Amino acid sequence: MEFPDLGKHCSEKTCKQLDFLPLKCDACDEDFCSGHFAYAAHKCPFAFKKDVQVPVCPLCNCPVPIKKGEIPDVVVGEHMDGDCKRPPGKKDEKVFTYRCSKEGCRRREMLRVACGECRGSFCIQHRHPLDHGCARGGRPVSSAGCSAARASDPGPSGASRKGPGAWLARSFRWKVKR
């Protein structure tokens, strides 16, 4: 062995691996390999000194101080019930604020889904112009809108939409329209 005093053994009782780049725990000042360096990996008895977390109130975004041995959830709950300085107007903020403009629909959405034609606010089910009977009702822009328009449009020919020759009739009509 060229360098007998190079490196240190891991301080974990079950490991004792010779490590040439040992890591020193800043809480208990012992040397560990990379596998046992974390506080939880070597069950550091002084981890509570370094592993400090401060909970934040979800309403006012202020840090809530806790003492050793207190449960953070309980302390934050007491803060929210007592001296929380939440911004005015935030007390009863509703999540689903955008009501569908389609007549007879009572659904509400979290985000505004606006129609590109009439600029109305609609639910997901009525978001396309053909679904809510758009007043401006121009031609559908997307291919999905074109296929929906074709499906709802009664064909000029007498060919039925069902049966063995239906796909042939649809493809013929498509080519004729182009």
Task: Please tell me about this protein's structure.
The protein is 22% helix and 7% strand. It has 178 residues and is α+β, with helices and mostly antiparallel strands. Strands 1-2 form a two-stranded antiparallel ribbon. A two-stranded antiparallel ribbon has the order 3-4. Strands 5-6 form a two-stranded antiparallel ribbon. The chain starts with 7 loop residues before the first strand and ends with a helix.
Describe the structure using short key phrases.
elongated; single chain; two-stranded antiparallel sheet; 178 residues
Mean pLDDT: 77
SS summary, helix count: 5
How big is the Rg?
34 Å
Q: What's the β-strand tally?
A: 6
Query: Level of helix content?
Result: 10-25%
The biggest beta sheet reads: 2 strands, antiparallel
Which class of secondary structure composition applies to the elements?
alpha+beta
- The end-to-end span amounts to 85 Å
Strand content is 5-15%
Shape: elongated
Unreliable sequence segments: 155-160
Strand order of the largest sheet: 1-2
Write the element-wise H/E pattern from the N-terminal end onward.
EEEEHHEEHHH
